[in-house]
Amino acid sequence: MRVKIASHSGFCFGVKRAIKIAEETLWRSKGKGNIYSLNPIIHNPQVVSDLSKKGLRVLRDIRKINKGAVVISSHGAPIDVIDRLKKKKIKIVDATCPFVKHAHDIVKDLKARGYRVVVIGDKEHPEVRTLLSVAGKDTKSRKIGIVSQTTQSRANYIKGISEVLKNDFSEVRIFNTICNDTAERQILTRGLLNECDVMVVVGGRNSANTRRLFDICKESGVDSYHVETKTDLKKGWFVSKKCAGVVSGTSTPDSTVKRVVQKIR
């Protein structure tokens, strides 16, 4: 059986940057106070666990923080949370992905120009909650601006836009805020689906972009499996298969992908 790996795998730029910022912050602060991340810094349990062993404490409630520093995750943080941290005089270390920041800038500009902003994405995802906090709650304007969660699939975004356009509006502006890396992985996944008869998607089960890749695989009808590490693999998945395709989410380490491939082989 052949094993084909998507040419785009492992960490994306934003994830690499967030981890580097977290590790540098931990290194500089040795013995000088606690370092927290507001929610997991990236959506990969194994990486978050490794950072936790180095001293990064994951919290979901900032009321428990009275001193030290908070690393903002790659997904960003809502405006009210940032304001509360500033009032408490907690040091803020911003590891928000630059592509997510770019979406923030678009939303800020739309809001300033009087547009009602619509964010298409997973309602409970931290990135979407942050974008909505930037957009505010104006629901009266007939001018609409549409942006996407950066890890959304193109198909879902187009479907969402179609739904928005059914509403009453005087003007619509649509921005493609899907991250290039995310879009490229989806394209490569579809390419492997044309060549392989079993697919393995590697990444955190809490990772939106990894789940999106898995959805693409499942919808194709090809036997597909979502694993976090090599221990999730089952030998029976590959019986009588001629080609296994391997793709990974943007928060999956190269080392994890390599271990999965080695075990499949």
Which structural traits does this protein have?
265 residues; alpha/beta; Cobalt-precorrin-4 Transmethylase, domain 1; Rossmann fold; four-stranded parallel sheet; 9 helices
Fraction in helix: 40-55%
- Name the CATH architecture of the largest domain: 3-Layer(aba) Sandwich
The level 1 CATH classification of the largest domain is Alpha Beta
Q: Kindly report the name of the CATH homologous superfamily of the largest domain.
A: 4-hydroxy-3-methylbut-2-enyl diphosphate reductase, catalytic domain
Strand percentage lies at: 15-25%
**Overall average pLDDT:** 94
Taking Cα atoms only, what radius of gyration do you get, to the nearest Å? 20 Å
Low-confidence stretches: none
Specify the overall morphology: flat
Number of helices: 9
Number of E-type strands: 11
Give the distance, in angstroms, between the N- and C-terminal Cα atoms.
8 Å
Secondary structural class: alpha/beta
Please provide the ordered H/E string of secondary-structure elements: EHEHEEHEHEHEHEHEHEEH
In total, the number of domains comes to 3
User: What is the third-level CATH name, the topology of the largest domain?
Assistant: Cobalt-precorrin-4 Transmethylase, domain 1
Largest sheet: 4 strands, parallel
Task: Please state how the strands of the largest beta sheet are arranged side by side.
Answer: 1-11-9-10
